[in-house]
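Moderator note: this is an archived Q&A kept for reference. The question asked for a predicted structure of one protein chain; the sequence and the answer are reproduced below.
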Amino acid sequence: MDIIAVDPEKCNRDGICVTECPVAGISFPDRDAVPAPGPGLEQTCLGCGHCVAVCPTGALTHRDVPLEDCPEIRKDLVINQDQAEQFLRSRRSIRVYKDKSAPREVLQQLVDMAHYAPTAHNDQEVHFTVIEDKEEVKMLTGMVIDWMRATLKADKALGEKMFFHMFVGAWDMGFDALCRSAPHMVLAHTEHGKSPFSHYYPVDCASALAYLELAAPTLGLGTYWNGMFMAAALSCEPLRKALNLPKDHRLNGVLMLGYPKFKYHRLPKRKEAPVRWSVKDSMD
């Protein structure tokens, strides 16, 4: 089949798919015809599925985004503003976890939802490594602590500026202040240089992990962004090797994951958002 196909019996010839196509790649010469691939669409198409998703009658299908794989949006599941605000405001960084592992099928569900995050040019090149075993998480945490010890020894002022002495001291007293004894860890990584849009990959990974973080509570899970672990992974060669990421892949984000030990009952206030409105002066 062509890259897109339109059922003339279902098509109401409203031209919405033509207007919506991000690359202006769908042709609609007149209302006696139906939309069709324009010149060069094979080369320029992002495979985003906008044309399939926006068609109100389900007349259009895409070779790589077939209509049968695109369920209709259920109106009864659309959340309202109050629900959305509470959902977003109730997000918490979880630093106390139950001593309980999540089943792999639950972790897979979470990754599947995270993979719907937007990516530059619809590359969809975010890779996930899920460390399931709590003992492996603990081993990796210990490697970071060793790196912190070495840094403190080599440059005490720098190490203390980064609070390494606090992490090391807590570890020596039996408390994991770095990974919070979480049972799982999720790494987001991408293949460097694979695409001309690969300079956007760190943002793509951050978006994917943000989706994962927001989806986690729907499965009873909580997360914690671990920037300190990521900093160590970018600086400590033994840790990079232990993570065993695919060749040429770069780590772009780390989340701790597990079942929260406690529930939250309030929505803490945040600082007022610093916003700047750019409005041109009226010519009147």
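Archived answer notes: The mean pLDDT is 95.
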